[in-house]
Amino acid sequence: MFGLPTFLQAIIGFLLLIGPLVVLHELGHYLVARWLGVKSDVFSIGFGRELWGLTDKRGTRWRIAAVPLGGYVQFAGDGNAVSQVDDDKISHMTTEERSHAFATQPIWKRSLIVLAGPVANLIVALAIFFAFNAIYGKPVEVPEVTGFTEKSDARTAGIQLRDRVVSVDGTEISSATEIAEHVLPYPGRTIQLGVERDGRRLTVPVKLTSQTVKDQFGNEGRIADLGIDFASPNVRMAVPGSPADKAGIEANDRIVAINDTPVSSFRQVRDLIVARPGEKITVTVRRGDEEKRLPVNVGAVSGTDEKGVKRTIGQIGIAYGKVEKVGLVEAATMSVDQCAGIMRMMVTGIVQIVTGERSVKELGGPLKIAKYSGEHLSLGFDNFVWFVALISINLAFINLLPIPTLDGGHLAFYAAEAVRRRPVDAKGQEWAFRTGLAFVLALMLFVTINDIASLLPFGK
Q1: Which of 26, 97, 150, 430 is catalytic?
Q2: Which residue from 36, 114, 104, 47 is spatially nearest to 76, judged by alpha carbons?
Q3: How confident is the model at residue 84 (pLDDT cuts 50, 70, 90)?
Q4: Cβ-contact 13, 376 below 8 angstroms
């Protein structure tokens, strides 16, 4: 996909992302409804005019529509795509037909059918994370301070080299990879960092400053960063065919020097290599009990530095850190933890936007998703599939919000029905669905305008 124009790449990435996720979401509704004996009249991918369709032997119309931004399942007795009840349609049904209508089912059946869509998206994400964990294992990085950035909040607060981070705001930490969830989303806050130093346990308050970072595509994000380097210079792998691979660098080598400059962290290794595009350097590695000096021709690629400035940088093609193989049970447990962590960060982001800690400009819509889809596609299959898992969790989370027209809105109505022992009256439902639809459309318009403003030069 590297040779494709950016715009075309974004379209292909978006279609490969949103199409399957929508199909699987709606398939969740459909399969559970079919299992519970509820008839589906329409299974639509997209909205608007039908481009293609067929009717199966059960009477379900399978269709692809003109606007590919979503989809729906319309059950027997539904008046429209958001499952509003059509009393007139139900009144003209036979007793047999009525028994297979969605609206005539008990609350528990309706709830399971509605919940099945978001659950299907979560299952997709869990399956992807499980596969990655089972194949690649888990990164293990001892949370011991090996270095600091130039402007480090942690160093300013009194954190020292060789301190071992053991907790963040009272939550125990066993690996450096666990720290990000407790730090990145909270620029401006003061966290309590628990560290072990010379056999003693200390708690150090650290004021997190806000940092704007850019990735290699120029996408900006506002995060907090402790400014600590935990990564030891252990080689996890040398990319096949890369300068490191050709020079003989192997997995589990520990880099101890670059051009006779001793290094103790991967940040030091990266900084020394990034600054030498096209040069020949000597990389000293420790392999077992011996040291080897390996000549490496540094590759020159177009990229961005930590400040987001585009320039030619050096790369040799190594991945760092230690990885442990895990069993299937641990891989599954890790996938649940990963999904839960991502959802917690989503909740945190929404709360911060509502309370004003973050700007509404940070909200993204379909145009940004398309852009990011194309970018992740350009980085390779693994990156794209990981992004699919992230968006699948987003779809599940958004659909569970208690907004009429969304799955969460239906579940809220069923909860009210269970408490009141009778459904919300038709007029109340009509008002709620109209309001919910207006809100969703307004939000879509807002985030699309947001996307356009941020993607155009004057929005930067």
Answers
A1: 26
A2: 104
A3: low
A4: yes
Which class does domain 147-229 fall in? mainly beta
* Residue 26 falls in the annotated catalytic set: yes
At 459 the pLDDT is 47
CB atoms within 10 A of CB 192: 13
End-to-end CA distance of the chain: 27
**Domains of the chain, residue spans:** 6-36+105-128+390-459, 147-229, 235-324
- Evaluate if residue 307 carries a pLDDT over 70: no
In 106-189, DSSP assigns E strands to 138-140, 147-148, 164-168, 171-172
Give the residue, 333 or 320, on which the prediction is more confident: 333
Mean predicted lDDT score pLDDT of the chain: 86
Q: Give the C-alpha separation, 60 to 374, whole Å.
A: 34
Instruction: Give me the percent of the chain exceeding a pLDDT of 70.
Output: 92
Is the pLDDT assigned to residue 8 strictly greater than 90? no
Cα–Cα dist 55/268, whole Å: 63
Question: Residue 155 above 60 pLDDT?
Answer: yes
Taking each helix axis from N to C terminus, what angle separates 381-399 and 107-136, rounded to the nearest 10 degrees?
A: 160
Structure tokens at 397: 């989370």
Query: What's the one-letter identity of residue 228?
Result: I
111: nearest Cα among 62, 22, 38, 40: 38
Confidence of residue 439 (pLDDT cuts 50, 70, 90): confident
pLDDT tens for each residue of 166-176? 999 999 988 88
Provide Rg for the chain, Cα atoms.
26
CA distance 189 to 168: 12
Classified as helix, coil or strand, 279 is coil
Spell out the residues 6+ positions from residue 376 whose beta carbon is closer than 8 angstroms to its own.
13, 383, 384, 386, 387
Supply φ then ψ for residue 166, to 5 degrees. -120, -15
The helix (H) or strand (E) run that includes residue 371 is helix 366-378
Q: Identical fold at 147-229 and 235-324?
A: yes
Domain covering 235-324, topology? Pdz3 Domain (2.30.42)
pLDDT tens sequence across 235-294: 878 888 889 999 999 888 889 999 989 887 787 888 889 888 899 999 999 998 899 999
Residues 6+ positions from 394 with CB-CB distance below 8 Å: 346
